Amino acid sequence: MSALSRPSTSALFDVVFGVVVMGTVGALIGTILGGSSIPLASGLGLALGAVVGFLGGRRFLVSILVGTVLGGLLAWLVAGFEKVSFGAGAGAAMGGFLGVQISMLLDMRAARKAAALEAGDDSTAAHSAVTKS
């Protein structure tokens, strides 16, 4: 029987970070849905956060955290303190969506740079709009 290796501190941090962020967002969404929905929404957020953290979605979780804070602050400034949970929940959703899109664009940019380095400078010059004479 083989021994299980201990997870790295980085992986453990990602899981805990995911649980905290997504559990908070779940609680905010549960607050919006109604008081009896808080345990269900929080539990679902905790489970999703653990999975996302385990899979290494740190950029995604940071974008949700930033969206939550900015959405809550904007709602506080615009509508008052009683609407902070609404703004934070909506900001988390928008932050998650934008985080996925930005992450995808960054991955595409990195892949394009790696392909350009692999192909060499001569082949990238052939695709350029400027031609040498």
SSE layout:
Blueprint: H1 9-33, H2 38-54, H3 58-79, H4 84-119, H5 121-126
Helix pairs in contact: 1-2, 1-3, 1-4, 3-4
Described by its quaternary structure, the protein is: single chain
The helicity comes to: over 70%
Q: How many discrete domains?
A: 1
**Topology order in helix (H) and strand (E) letters:** HHHHH
Intertermini distance: 68 Å
Count of extended strands:
0
Radius of gyration: 21 Å
- Overall average residue pLDDT: 85
Transmembrane segments: 12-32, 38-55, 60-79, 85-106
Keywords: Membrane, Transmembrane, Transmembrane helix
Using brief descriptors, characterize the structure shown.
single chain; transmembrane helix; membrane; transmembrane; 133 residues; flat; 5 helices; mainly alpha
